[in-house]
Amino acid sequence: MIEAVLIGADLIGAEIEGCDLRQASLSRADMAGASLTNSDCSLSRLEGTNLSEATLHSSKFRSAELGSARLLEARIRECDFRGAVLTAAGLNQSNVFDTSFADTNMEGAVFYHSHMQLCRFIGAIATDANFGNAHLESCDLRGAALSGSKFYRAELTRSCLGRTLMAGCDLREAKLGGVDFTGATLTNALLEGAVLFAADLRGADLRGARGMTGLQLSQARTDSDTVLPSGARGPYLRGSGAERPA
């Protein structure tokens, strides 16, 4: 089905297995509840496509266009979205396992209450995305651009966010225990009530970060390359007041 034109097609509940849909046009198609297994949708156009409650397994979406696509409650397993465009896509309450989103553009995408495990977002652009109440377990977000994104009450257990750009992110009440933030930019981030036990903040820039307490910072790992909320260099010393922005 290479370069097939299926714009606005009714594919509700369709079972698509082992198909070649490279460069196909599926914009605004209704694929709610569909099953897509071992198929190749690389370079395909899926803008505004409804994939709610769909099952995507071992399929490729490399450099595909999925802007404003709906993947609500989708089950995604072992898929490849490298280089895809997912701007303003909705993945609310989706369940994603062992999937690559490396180098994707997902500005303004919504991952509210999604559950993601062993996923890779290396080099992804996810500015102003919403990960509120999401669960990201053992995910790799190294080098991702996440400025302005919301992680309110999210859980990032054992995830790596080294060298990420997270300026102005909302991390209030997030569970960040054991998370790797080495070299990350967290300037002006909101961290009120965040759990930072054993979080690695070596080399991180926390200048202007708000809502932090001395207890939070003392439970995290800082070093001489850490820039504390006050603008002073670390490591953080309890009682120094460096947890308060200048």
Number of helices: 1
Radius of gyration, Cα only, in angstroms? 20 Å
Mean pLDDT: 97
Distance between the termini: 60 Å
Strand and helix order: EEEEEEEH
Number of E-type strands:
7
Structural category is little secondary structure
User: Largest sheet, described in full?
Assistant: 7 strands, parallel
Model regions low in confidence, pLDDT < 50 over at least 5 residues? none
Spatial strand arrangement across the major sheet: 1-2-3-4-5-6-7
Helix content: under 10%
Strand content: 5-15%
Shape: elongated
Would you mind describing this structure in some detail?
By secondary structure, this protein is largely without helices or strands. The chain is built from one helix and seven strands. Strands 1-2-3-4-5-6-7 form a seven-stranded parallel beta sheet, with no helix packed on it. The chain is elongated.
